[in-house]
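Journal club side-thread
Mid-discussion, someone asked how the predicted structure for our own chain would compare to the paper's figures. Pasting it here so we can look after the session.
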Amino acid sequence: MAARNHHYIPQCYLKGFVKNRDKAQLYAIDCENPEPFTPSTAGVGSRRDFHRIDIEGLAPDALENAFSGFEGELDQALRRINAARSLDDFNDKSFLLNLIGIIHVKNPQIRSVFHDFEENIARRVMDLTTSSREIYESQVRQAKENGYINPDADIDYETAKSFFEEKAFKIEVPTERHLQREMDLLDTALPCLFNRSWHLLKAPKEETGFVTSDHPVVLQWQDPKLRSGPYPPGLGLKNTEVLFSVSNTLAVVGTFEEDEMEIDASSELIAKFNGAIISCSKRQVYARDDGFMYAFDDMVTPRKGDTLIEYVSSALEKAD
């Protein structure tokens, strides 16, 4: 039977944030729930049929199985990076950068944006097509000639216009179209990641250090003053940085301007890094336990993880 629960955040990556890999449970905070919970890595970072395809000659889970093969090798690379606490092995580093690229371009948020874009275009085309009988009949004739509509189809103008105006339909974007676009985006993203220099941040092994989330790749301007401005950062732009938690004890920051280095991260640096990861999350934050520290720009001193739900709830109340 084909697997239906497909991970857009690999389980082997999420296992870097658990206390016991055999049990593989995370400490999780959901902004829509009042209490933290402890899901398994199998239960988060996934969507039903996220990689399912409908292509003649291929099994529906063919792509999911292909990703599983990559994740098997990725798992070993991440284990070696965490054991060595180093990015000196180029092959292992390449797996890490591919992971960052894949998560950056292949996630529910990106799909939602492109779905809305294509839906908007489709509705505009339909609006134009039904704006007059002449345009509608011309478009139908061309569609039949080009094989897009059955030559015997007979849908009159008034029926089509009423169908559109009543919005008696739903526009779907095939998963295959999303996946093709995501792979094209990945081809563009990877050089922008490999051309960056990477700082490896090391948290103390015995502490709860870095957190991750349901949207763990952070792309931001290096200058904090620009982060609230009108111009979003681009992956290929100078003066930007990519933040990514590798595991509970390791994280990376990629820039174009600085040399590669390894840094023993202070508590303050870890807290600020976690604040950036949390701020970029869409709904959920994952950690080893509630002992992590976090800090946002408006904080004088860092706070402990067990206060995050209270902080988020307070912020949402103020926003309302």
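Post-session note: The longest strand covers residues 197-202.
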